[in-house]
Design brief:
Blueprint lengths: L4 E7 L6 H9 L4 E9 L2 E8 L1 H8 L4 E5 L10 E7 L16 H11 L10 E9 L3 H11 L6 H7 L12 H14 L3 E10 L2 H8 L6 E4 L15 H4 L6 E4 H8 L30
Antiparallel strand pairs: 1-3, 1-4, 2-3, 2-6, 5-7, 5-8, 6-7, 7-9
């Protein structure tokens, strides 16, 4: 297994169409973690991945991937991890939508923290690893369609009149069609988490996630409630994972639609919206 290193993805102010850039990226990468962080009035995008996948991140247009010389500590008082509300064979979204996480972070900063400090500290953390789930989805489809798997039942079906073939309800047929669509896409085993310093911020941040995801409680034996989200890669084996297509994943971690209107830690090309770049050592 290749070592996963830390990087910061810095966007130029003229960066556009983040959802399309992310979808194109997901066609090529097979393992990475991305962290969308808000701190000191600034949004930063950190990436943790190996050398091969880092080359694909470096290919994002109007952006620059910078190697970090330190390992960030992303620890929060409150964390929530997420699982799928529906069966993993079913999509939670069916097309890539512009992510609202970045504009939401700007709004959260305008509202301010509950402790009155003015500004928020929060994060969306996502670890994703490619694994083809087409076979498992096809098995789910076959069960929904009432297909028999044993040899005896298969032989018995040879003598069954075509008039007695089970007909699916419109709802079941619709679910099967959705699953067939997801089966043809690229799949990722995904760990999703949010972190914040107060409940109100965490609740509002949750609004950026699709409805098909729902928070779950961690095992009490896990220790420290997985409050350090920078270690989501190491914890991935013991956490519940969502099976997401590239389309679903891109809808969650898409890059900004328009970087020029956000307070992002950008490259050296500054605009009046950029603000002060946060000192790297503060993360």
């Amino acid at each position: 297994m290749m070592e996963m290193k830390w990087y910061e993805l810095r966007l130029y102010p003229n960066f556009k169409d983040g959802e399309e850039e992310m979808l194109n990226l997901l066609y090529r990468v097979d393992e990475f973690a991305i962290f969308i962080i808000r701190k000191n009035g600034m949004t930063r995008i950190l990436v943790r991945t190996d050398d091969i996948n880092a080359m694909h991140f470096s290919g994002i247009q109007n952006a620059r991937l910078e190697r970090l010389e330190w390992n960030p500590s992303l620890r929060y008082s409150l964390t929530r991890y997420y699982k799928m509300r529906v069966h993993s064979a079913l999509p939670i979204v069916e097309k890539v939508r512009p992510s609202i996480i970045y504009t939401m972070l700007e709004e959260l900063d305008n509202i301010g923290n509950s402790d009155g400090k003015g500004g928020v500290e929060c994060i969306l953390a996502c670890y994703a690893k490619y694994k083809d789930e087409a076979y498992s989805i096809s098995r789910w489809i076959m069960r929904k369609e009432g297909h028999e798997h044993s040899l005896v039942k298969a032989l018995k079906s040879l003598f069954t009149s075509n008039e007695r073939v089970r007909r699916l309800s419109p709802l079941t047929e619709s679910l099967v069609e959705k699953a067939r669509w997801k089966m043809r896409l690229k799949h990722f085993h995904t760990v999703l988490a949010l972190g914040a310093e107060d409940v109100r911020t965490l609740d509002m941040l949750e609004g950026a996630l699709p409805y098909g995801l729902v928070a779950y409680s961690n095992n009490k034996r896990a220790g420290d409630h997985f409050s350090d989200l920078s270690s989501v890669v190491e914890h991935a084996r013991v956490l519940k994972k969502c099976i997401l297509s590239d389309v679903e994943l891109a809808s969650i971690v898409a890059l900004p639609k328009d970087a020029s209107i956000l307070r992002l830690a950008t490259t050296d090309r500054r605009t009046f919206t950029t603000g002060l770049v946060v000192d790297a050592d503060t993360l």
